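User: Structure tokens for both sequences below?

Assistant:
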Amino acid sequence: MQSSKYYGFAGALALFCGVAQAASAPSSVSPAAPPAALAARLADFDGWAARRMGAERIPGVTVGFSQGDVEWVKGYGYADLENRVPATAQSSYRMASVTKPMTAVAILQLVEQGKIDLDAPVQTYVPYFPVKPFPVTVRQLLGHLGGIDAYRDSRVEQHFKEHKDTRQSIAVFEQFDLIAEPGTRFRYTSYGYNLLGAVIEAASGESYGGYMRRHVWGPLGMDATVMDDPDAVIAHRVRGYRLAGKELKNSEFVDISSRFSAGGTRASVPDMLAFGRGVHAGKILSAASVAAMVQPMATRAGRLTNYGMGWEILPTGGRYAIAHSGQQPETVTYLYSFPSRKLTIAVAANLERVNPEAFVQRLFEAVTGEPWQLNTYIADAGAQRAYQVAQGLFEEGRAYAERTDQAYADAAATRAAFTHINRQALAPDAQAARAYIEAARHPAGGRVFLVAGASMARALRESGVDLNTYSRGGALAFARDYVRLSQDAKAGTVPRFDPAFEQAIVALAASWDRTAAIAWPAASVSIAALDSQLRTAFRGQRAYPDFVPELLDLAQASAARGEADAALAASRLAVELYPLSNRAHALQGLTLLRAGKTEPALAALRLALARDPLGAASPAALNLEAYRLKGSGAVAQGMAVLQAAASLHPRDANLQDSLAEFYVEQGLRPQAVEAYRQALQLDPRYPGAVGAKAAIIRLGGETKALAP
């Protein structure tokens, strides 16, 4: 059936702080008028997009969705600021790593034709790639488990100006040592996908671009998808931008041919939607290949990587979803697909280092009327573990049920999973139980959350429950309803949880029923008003909505406007409302840092670490926040975050490497050399070690003292 399509443009009629603003324009999802509720939500999305673009100074964005036979795409702002060229549905953006799932599809097509063996060493198809101490297979490359490193000297490898062919692209990294024995470590790397591009060329006898046009893009009607050639005339080519301090600048020119099959394409949002729709509709792959592609891989130690063959795979609000993001000079992109719902959402923007997922989430809510994710805070420390178990069961179980109506495990395995959860996840030893819960979704933990959760979803569905209702009820309603079902069932027919767990879940769910409808204010209100409203609503409750993300946005927006007192007030409110939340304490710590209050900031960050060592005050999270601040122009604040992170995590080599990068950009060469040297002393083999050694030499540092 031919799809009904609507392509709109929200004209950017004014500039605010030098950034094109989106203006609302009539839109539709079909030639006829859209349903009133959907039309209203899309109109709200227009307003939200304008505010988001203004806050993040995004010049242009194109977003869209397709569901069944309906497709809606709309451009906001400018594709070219200098020439006032509007962003439209036809705008051609760099795809960046959204190229990777396309490459994975091509590999699997050739597997179906018998031209590629997934478990063959890559040299079977790319004989010029040097043999390593361990074989690297095509399957491992698809899942980033091949031991292939990523950029080692990003100042060189991410800034090529000259065009490279396939052989030259492979030569960039072919002499790199493996970072680990294949299969033992997940390392996201575009270089591994470049190798897959070379495999495609060898197995098909065609160039990568030629094969993709004939066998992937063409059959799916992706007529706007091309290799990104700076010399070619490409219709509707979008111009990219970056923030330098507070000022918008044109993106640096980088020829991305060196990333050809990992991130070297350009396309429109309708083509992104056509790809997502075509994959889950089975238009260019068999059902067996699609099923294999969307299975998350695991390391040899039994840890899920949350990545299949070219797709990020992680349950989203208890929904079955596959996705891939992209980021490179000139662009950010995101492709999100919910195959069981026949829903695909895509976004592309022309400002580097912004978060495109926010647009995906907001458009999902507009299209479905469902919240993207239910953020629930458990105010009872003793009941937090029960909620963590319920959340794990819900995310894994309902997502599986949304994907298929087939049982995941037999009755014996299911009862064993319940027994393990009762004995270990709910055991009196809190530390051991925490470790078990953390492992429970992985093969190393027997995937007990999936085994038990899938059986819970199946039992609820067979009892007549519509599982879609849990998009609003969430994990607590899901677990509570199963507890009641199992209590009413004949003894021994349905697996039961520990009675203490059942009691905790029923009590938490009752509290959540009373508070779940409380929403963050749609209109801006003062911190004092928020404080009064939310304290009153949450008083005496054991479970209520977690508004730390909203308070984070409020604090960041206030800080960006120079309103330090308002930012600090928002962070204080977060801690007062959510004292057990690691994210609340991290927010307070980061806000205090931005205000120059170092010692209390470190104390708050230590509290966040005590609540969750892998949470918002972890090395990775603080490193990401530092780069976010730098990308928004707040370089000094980003440096302060890194210095605090290094104080909290003195053994983390990557934090020292990041500090060195910040020092280099500020012209502080001696400090940069010392930070690189410190990183190498901490871990001579950390992922950036080779680049650090090269940087020390380039900066004029002594080389004889370098770690081997």
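Moving on to the next sequence.
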Amino acid sequence: MADRGASGALSLPDDWPAHPDPILALNRMGSFDWDLDTGLMQMDAQAHDVFDVRPDEYDDRPESLAERVPPGEARRLDTAVSQALKDGSENYGAYFRVRRRDGSLRWTHTQGYIRRDETGRPRRIIGIVRDATRELGEIDARRDQADRDEARREQASVVELATAALAHARTVQDVIDVLKDTHGLIHLGATSLVMGLVEAGRIRLVAEGPEDAFVPGTRVTRIDEPYPMSEVVRTLAPCFIESPEEFAERYPILWPHITDLNITSAAYLPLIVQARPIGAMGLLYSDRRGFTTEERDILVALGSSIAQSLQRAMFYEQEMDLAQGLQQAMLPRTIPSVPGADVAVRYRAATIGGSVGRDIGGDWYDLIPLPGGRVGAVIGDVQGHDTHAAAVMGQLRIVLRAYAAEGHPPATVMARASVFLHELDTDRSATCLYAEADLNTGVLQVVRAGHIDPLVRLTDGSCRRVAVPGGLPLGLSAEFGRLDYPVGTVELDPGDTLVLCTDGLVEQPGADLDDGMRTLTALVATGPEDVRDLADRLIDVADERGGDDDVALLLLRRRGPEGPHAGRRLQRQVAPGDPAALSEARHMIRTAVAAWGAGDRADEIELVADELVTNALMHTEGSATLTLRVLTGSDRRLRVEVEDSSSALPRRREAGDSGVSGRGLLLVELLTDVWGVEARGGGKAVWCEFVVPDQD
């Protein structure tokens, strides 16, 4: 048992630090000595101050402190001491509250050192007690600050994540999807999101959530209306609403429509770019009231990031509208109806992430009606995926159509198109395939300039790749002086389908081109019979596969006989100064007319054909090509064509009484049922038709 001195200071044991009183006093600590055998606990004057008791109020018995230590705190303190005594600990420590004389509570901390005898039995506890109010207050303050810092970090992280996600948003809808994503703004605790864009002096709502949160009549609102988004657009300043009462008072028109959302606060942010409002966004909360300065700053920063992303998205969509408009203007607006064939065309734009204006390209298709029941089918691909490629494609398509319509043979059409592209002010080349189809006979003349081969699907459902000899791509062939394009011949029976496409439908990342062609061949073979359904199926496959190349597709299916079509065809070339060739041509006419059952008009047909061949030999340089063919349909006709190398059109002349020439065209007009002239490349063809009876 320790004795108290006159000063009231505790007489400490030998193992206590020398002269501790000044140290304890300076640190506002009191000391105690608790004799466990007698149960008496002596305290010094500083300990009395901690417990807020006077010396005459404390009789060295711990029970005397019951008025100062609330029961709950006493039980917790007793538990800590008892546990330390039982488990052999040398010390213990505990925080507990003390009720001061004025009734207030303050935190106190005690640290006790247990002294045991040689048997391990606890005999004495020497310890200190101190006022811990400031300490715990500082800890609480640090904890609160840490919580606020963590909250700011989390909110800043959300802003950073949202900004990073917005960086990949290409369209306005992409921006909206990022904001409504469950990993986006919901981490800021928002219950509902609304967003509107400024258009022509009005605000058009582009996003709201949840789905049932839409307020009727707010899809499009004027900027001068009493709504929070209108206000922030007018003032260019954010609006923070910190309570339901404030919301109801400031916006009485809107508030009744959103009471079911249990909104307790809201933040409306103007979306400003270059000092101009492009829209507004509202975040509505149901579990908070008010906003700290840091939270307001973070939300304003978020609004700025969203505004920048929206502006990029709107610029992207504007450029895409222009680019796609250019693309559509360059492609044929309509595909003409072709007698004797079913045609389907499709175009799929490429999708290249992060590159504005690169969702278009230089792929194109075209179908060109030609004289004599023929049609030209074109598929091509200009190098590149941008508006320049689309512009070059449009020019190339126009000139190729013009060369074909002039009547040039396929090889000439391709050669001239290559020269045009080479002379154009561009560094682009192009691949192309041009097929001139005579749907009367089913014969196709095909030329290929660096393009992939065509496919033919047969009536039995099988599909094969048609190997067509080819030349260099357009532009390159002219550059290297290799303008020879060999012509391949393909025959389509009624029901067969010609498949022309660009390599975007064939090429796959990491796969060989031949493998892609085999895959496409299998798709065509197993696809629908109808060309429109088949075209849709092939484009769907391209969409599913994705890819960074556009796709153009043209399908042409030859129908069976239903209109005029060729049953038989004979051709003879007559050179100038070759009477034998002219005689053979006349013999061919007589024989064919008799064999084809047109004997009643044999003299008329032979006379007109002879007149046309003679005129071609007399008035042009070079030979004449005579072609006879039978057209069947609603009526049966025999067609005569004489082709020469002169582009000069025949002219009708009046013959005098003694004239020996000038009656040729008059004779043709009188004897034939119909006649005309067609351009054929550098020359022309004069043709006429005779209605003849059907054969049994």
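User: Anything stand out in the second?

Assistant: The chain is about 35% helix and 30% strand.
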